[in-house]
Amino acid sequence: MHRYQRRLRLFLAVTLFSALAVNAAAAQEPGADASWKSLRPDIFGERPIEEASPLVRLTAPKRAEDAAMVPIDVEIVLPEGDPRTVSKLTLIVDENPAPLAATFTFGGSRRDVALGTRLRVNSYSYVRAIAETSDGGLHMAERYVKASGGCSAPAMKDEEAQLKNLGQLKLKSVKADGMGDASQASRVSQLQLMIRHPNYSGLQMDPLTRAYIPAKFVDNIRVTQGDELIFSMVGGISLSEDPAIRVSYDPDGKEVHVDAGDTDGRKFEGELKPAS
C-alpha cells in the first residue's frame, strides 16, 4: 500500500511539473497576444471569432528550417449536415511588418477546403488561419512558429535570373494524398500553382548597392474552371518568393485558367487543359 501511494505521489508530482512547464513556456512566448489584440479590430472589426475552432486545422513547423519559406497547411471541414459553406480563408503572421499575408475567396458550395502555401516569418510569431463561413461566422486556428529574418532574407536567385523567368507559371492537377486526412477534399484532387516571382518585401537589401530593394510582389490571383471560380487571392509581402499554392478542388473536365498580377501592374496567365 505504501509503495502504491509513493508511486501515486510521484505520478501526480510529474504531472503537475509538466503542466507548469507547459504554462511557463507559453507565458514566455514573446508578444503572445499583444500584437493580435491590436491587429484584430483593423482586419475584422468587432466581429466575434471562434478561437481554437474545431472546424479549422492549421499545420506549421514549431521551428522553421527556412524563415523565408515556412510551409503551412490548412484544412477547413464543416460537420455532416451543416448547411453552411466555406467562403474565405485569411492567413496572418502576427509579428510580420505586414501581418496580413493573404486572403483567399472560394467559389462554389465548398463544405471542406484543404490549402497549402509558404509564408515568410520575420520573428517568433503566431501564424493564424481564420476561416469565414457563408453565414459570416469566423473560425480560427493558430500555431506558434519560431523563425526570424524571413522578410529581410535575400532572394535565393540573382536578379537577372529572376527577371528572365518572371511570371512563369507551373500549374498541374494531382490526386491529393499529402495535405492531410481530415476532409474529403484532402483525399480527392488538388490544384498546384507556382508563379516565378521574387516577391520582394521591401526589407531586402541589394548586395551591391546596399540599398533596400523596393517592394514588388504578386498581389492578386484568380483561378477558374470553365466559368466557375476555384479561388481568388489577395496577397502581401508575407507570401514567399515564387508563391506556391495547393488547393483542393473538384475537377469537372473543363479548362482551368489562371490570371495573376503583381504590384507593378504586370499580368501573368496560364491554363491547364483537361486530359483528352
Summarize the structure.
This is Sulfur-oxidizing protein SoxY. By secondary structure, this protein is of the alpha+beta class.
Sheet having the most strands: 9 strands, mixed
The helix/strand series, from N terminus to C terminus, equals HHEEEEEEEEHEEEEEEE
In angstroms, what separates the terminal alpha carbons?
A: 75 Å
* Total individual domains: 1
Per DSSP, the total helix count is 3
- Determine and state the CATH class: Mainly Beta
Rg calculated over all Cα atoms: 21 Å
User: Structural class of the secondary structure composition?
Assistant: alpha+beta
Q: What is the approximate shape?
A: globular
What average pLDDT do the residues reach? 85
| CATH-scheme architecture | Sandwich
Number of separate strands: 15
CATH fold category name: Immunoglobulin-like
**Strand ordering within the main sheet:** 1-8-7-4-5-12-11-14-15
**Share of β-strand residues:** 35-45%
What does this structure look like?
By secondary structure, the protein is of the alpha+beta class. The chain is 16% helix and 37% strand. The protein has a single domain (30-272), classed as SoxY domain (Immunoglobulin-like), CATH 2.60.40.2470. It is built from three helices and 15 strands. Residues 251-276 are annotated as: Disordered. Residues 42-151 form the Ig-like SoxY domain.
Task: Supply database-style keywords.
276 residues; Immunoglobulin-like; alpha+beta; nine-stranded mixed beta sheet; six-stranded antiparallel beta sheet
